[in-house]
Amino acid sequence: MNNFSSEQVRWPVPWNLAVNSAQPSPVAMGTVAIYSLFIINKSGGLIYYKDYGSAGRMDTNDSLRLASLWHSMHAISQQLSPTTGCTGIDLLQAHNFDLHCFQSLTGTKFFVVCETGTQNMEILLKTIYELYTEFVLKNPFYEMEMPIRCELFDLNLAHVIQKDRVALLGR
Amino acid sequence: MQFFGGSSLTSVAPDSSPAPAAPPGTGTGSNAQVIYVFNRNGVCLLYREWHRPLRTLARNQDQKLMFGLLFSLRSFTAKIDPTSTEHANLGAPLLPGQGCSFHSFKTNTYKLNYMESPSGIKLILLTHPRTGDQRDALKHIYSLYVEYVVKNPLYAPGSPIKCDLFNKHLDQYVKTLI
C-alpha cells in the first residue's frame, strides 16, 4: 500500500491533501465508494478514464461513447433550463448510483460515478481538478485536449482516491 | 364539455393550458416550475408551467428536446450502471423498468424529477434546485393522473390532457410542494 508514498514525499503538495499522515490499515481497501472517474475535454472526447471496481467490464469504445453522450446531455440540460444562467448537470441520481460532475472554466468536465448518497464528492472533484492542473497542465510533454498519460497524475490520483475511501469508512 | 373537455385528438391548441401566473420568488410554495407528461411514444400529453422566465425554444421543440434528453439519459444510466454485469448496447431501446433508471438530476438553476410508470407514462417535474426528494410527489401526481384523466370517459388515450379537474388538482397539489 505504501508503494507510492515515497513519491508523495518527494513532491511538495501545496494543498491540504497530504496533511493527514496517519496511514490507515489495508483492511479498508475492501470498500468501494467510487466506481469510476471520467475526464472529458471541451469537445466531448474522453481524455481519462479509470475504473475502481464496477461490476461489468466496460470496453474502450463504450467509455468513449458514454463520455461524448454525457457531454451532449450536459449541453442540452442547459437549453432546457426554466431560468437563466444554467451551467449544466451537477448531480445525476440514478437508482443504483450517483454521478457527480464538475465543469472547469475551460470546459473540461470531470465526473465520478459513486454509490448513492455519497457525500463530499464536490470536494473530491475539485481536488482531482487541482491534481489535473498541477500534474497534467504543468507537464511540458502534455498536449492540450489529448489523452492524459502522466505518471505523477496517476500516482497522486490513486493516493487521493484511497484517502477518500478511508475517510468514508471512518465515518 | 368544458368540464372534462378533452376529446379533440388532432391538434394542441396553443392556448390549451393557460398557465396560472404564479408569483415568482414568493414563499408560498412556488417551488415547482414546469411539468411535462409524455406517453411511451413521445407524445407530450401535458405541458404546464408555473414559473418559467426563460424560454429558449419554441414549445414544440422544447418538448422534443426534453423527451430526447430523457431517452438518452435512460440509455446512459442503463449502460454506465456499475452494479450490474450485463449491459445492453448503448442506444438499444429499453422497456419501461428495464435496466438502471434515474429519478432526478440537478443543475445550478433547476432540478428535474423523473418518474416512469410501467405503462411508459413519463412524468417530469422541474423544481427549484434545493427541493428535496420528489419521488412521492410524482407518485401522487401519477395517482391524480389515473384518477382524473384515465378514469375520465371522454379522454382518449394518447391525446393531450385537457381535463380541468386534473389541472385544478395538480395546481393545488403543486403549491404544497416543499
Question: Can you tell me about this structure?
Answer:
The complex is a heterodimer of chains A (171) and B (178). With 171 residues, chain A is an alpha+beta fold. Helices cover 36% and strands 18% of the residues of chain A. Chain A has a five-stranded antiparallel beta sheet. In chain A, helix 3 (121-137) runs antiparallel to helix 4 (151-169). The longest helix of chain A has 20 residues, at 60-79. Chain B is an alpha+beta fold. Mean pLDDT of chain B is 84; it is low at 1-28. In chain B, a hairpin with a 5-residue loop joins strand 1 (32-38) and strand 2 (44-49). Chain B has a five-stranded antiparallel beta sheet with strand order 2-1-5-4-3, with helices on both faces. Chain B has helices at residues 59-80, 135-150, 164-175, and strands spanning 32-38, 44-49, 102-107, 111-116, 122-127. Chain B is globular and about 45 Å long. The A-B interface holds A 35-36, 53-56, 58, 62, 65-66, 69-70, 72-73, 76-97, 99, 113 and B 33-34, 49, 51-54, 56-57, 62, 65-66, 68-69, 72-73, 75-77, 79-87, 90, 100-110, 112, 126. Strand 3 (89-94) of chain A pairs antiparallel with strand 3 (102-107) of chain B. Chain A: Part of the multisubunit transport protein particle (TRAPP) complex. Chain A: It comes from Triticum aestivum (Wheat). Chain A: One of its GO terms (cellular component) is endoplasmic reticulum. Chain A: One of its GO terms (biological process) is endoplasmic reticulum to Golgi vesicle-mediated transport.
Secondary structure blueprint with pairings:
The complex is a heterodimer of chains A (171) and B (178).
Chain A: H1 5-10, E1 34-40, E2 46-51, H2 60-79, E3 89-94, E4 98-103, E5 109-114, H3 121-137, H4 151-169
Antiparallel strand pairs in A: 1-2, 1-5, 3-4, 4-5
Helix pairs in contact in A: 3-4
Chain B: E1 32-38, E2 44-49, H1 59-80, E3 102-107, E4 111-116, E5 122-127, H2 135-150, H3 164-175
Antiparallel strand pairs in B: 1-2, 1-5, 3-4, 4-5
Helix pairs in contact in B: 2-3
